[in-house]
Design a protein that fits this description.
Blueprint: H1 10-13, H2 18-28, E1 42-47, H3 59-72, E2 76-81, H4 98-111, E3 116-121, H5 126-137, E4 141-145, E5 152-154, E6 157-159, H6 163-173, H7 179-189, H8 201-212, H9 227-245, H10 256-269, H11 274-286, H12 292-299, H13 316-321, H14 324-331, H15 348-354, E7 377-381, E8 384-390, E9 401-409, H16 412-418, E10 431-434, H17 455-459, E11 466-469, E12 481-482, E13 503-507, E14 512-515, H18 519-528, H19 541-549
Parallel strand pairs: 1-2, 1-3, 3-4, 9-10, 10-11, 11-12
Antiparallel strand pairs: 5-6, 7-8, 9-13, 13-14
The structure holds FE2/S2 (inorganic) cluster.
The site of FE2/S2 (inorganic) cluster has 10 residues, from loops.
Length: 575
Amino acid sequence: MTDRPKLRSAAVYGKQDRDGFIHRSWMKSQGLPDDCFDGRPLIGICNTWSELTPCNAHLRILADHVKRGVWQAGGVPLEFPVSSLGETQIRPTAMLFRNLLAMDVEEALRGYAIDGVVLMGGCDKTTPAQLMGAASVDLPALVVSSGPMLNGRFRGETIGSGTDVWRLSEDMRAGLISETTFFSAEAAMSRSAGVCNTMGTASTIGSLCEALGVALPGNASIPAVDARRRTLAHLSGRAIVDLVMIERPLSHFLSRAAFENAIRVHAAIGGSTNAVVHLLALAGRCGVNLTLEDFDTLSRDVPLIANLAPSGKYLMEDFDYAGGMPAVMNRIAHLLHGDAPTVGGSTIGAVARGGECFNDDVIYPIDAPVNHSSGTWVLRGNLAPDGAIMKPNAATPALLTHEGPAVVFESIEDFKARIDDPALDVTAGSVLVLKGCGPKGYPGMPEVGNMQLPKKLLEAGVRDMVRISDARMSGTAYGTVVLHVSPEAYAGGPLALVRNGDRVKLNGPARTLDLLVDDAELACRRQALSPPPPPPNSQRGYVKLYVDTVLQADKGCDLDFLVGKSGAIVTRESH
Ligand code: FES
């Protein structure tokens, strides 16, 4: 190879001393020849493979294809594990550990003398965590996502991950389907390797990786088991070597313009509300000044054009066949920063120009969209002084402006104990309020904000109500749900002061959320408020560190001392 830049790995593996002997000798135990250490790029493959993260369980197979591309381009691939987060498996919530995984990734990338890295993740928190950790080190990096599962098929119908769990569960509770029918859908919904097949959080983040320019086109939508995903992995292996050779760190791509592109694409695809906290946290690592308000402002003129569950009809497999993200970006190209670079050596504008739509019922034209209202609404008022969010296209239009009496649940345990009580004083016009589910209070801000409706109302045909909490909700969920209320109740936010029967007023179009209780009464209630007990398991270890230092949702829920970056330099040797 010629014209190699001075590589980080060369400073370690090229040493002609005892340290160099140690570094090379142990690596040679894997059968690597001498010329692997002659100054060619060492490429890390940071893998969140785990059998406890089913959505990422095939990533070792895909990593083999990344390796082919790295070898072909003249690099040396070195795959390594980091911890993994199975969204549907780990408790109390994967979000509690996103920052732990980000720390794991950051220290591995800094500590090992690699020159660039391929981040292999997919299940909801894995990719955001990997990007956050990588941004704080700032090597050349790109993402290869798991890819979505095949469409679910059940009794002749297409069913989507998560979205149809919520629907079928409510149908069962309303007595419309039997338990046997409900449980029969389990295997039919998850038919292959890959992430949720709806536009849930994982597919949203996979899509935003394309919009941010940190993944190759097709990353979001090519099904996990499709041979073309292996090809994408192979091409990504080549691309990361190129990025190292032309010295393009992650910060070259993650600019303010890239985040603006991501927010606009997020609105066009009806992306998950969870992307808000992840993009805010990632921007914090990058030193990009991104605020909660940016999500509302930048998405106001972007209509929903992707007809995908949970906001629409189709699933990710259909999205891929319709043209995927390049087709979406083609249709909103005039709203994007076209000169933003991509890891494939192109620009967002060039990717958008190459995009073509093959099914207008899956990706609508921009002048006849699925919904003119999209994106993220950022609400403020005396109930959410630092903001709350809602997803208008997942809500019932008639409930976007609503006033009603609060039915308050002090904790998730209180909610589960009483929601189906026939004596619960609740009507379709009530506002369900759940406390204690924020970043510190739960801890970890779980996906419980789309509270199940009271059984007696479901049986009466009610299918949506206004729900308000400091929790998140699954990207696959829907409903008139106000989320991420900040500050959270545990941290003393006004949510803690709400009592049964208080009038709550939501005015979505005006972006307000208010508790109709006068200030003097609220001040009295605050005086009477006693400090909440510590959250479960928060007396020691990582959870204590998390509860002590986690930022509120409007800041992205990173740990306060992790914001920013430390770079890649390590000055001391290990022996
Ligand atoms: Fe892993 Fe949805 S649970 S992507």
